[in-house]
Fold this protein.
Amino acid sequence: MARISFPYTHYDLKLQRGGTVIEVTLSAVANVRLMTNTNFDLFRNARQHKFLGGVAKKSPIRLQIPENGHWHVVVDMEGHAGKADSSIKLVPQAPPQPAPRFNAAS
């Protein structure tokens, strides 16, 4: 089976909740791909896969995990010259605030 022929940096996010925001910091223009465990396996084997993200022309880039599951981030230079250093962090989400209470007019 074919394998990816270009270098990439892989971040295994393990199980994450939908709505979690991932912030990726880059030193150069690069491709950033947020994908499910299944799609990461397809990517590694040079098969057609789906992902969120794309070419990141500015840094940092933020991506939101759409649903609960096992997620991966890949940073690669396919189609770009050079190399990009990268780092990721989970962005803390503020807890949901209760809806404001309105009092009846007297």
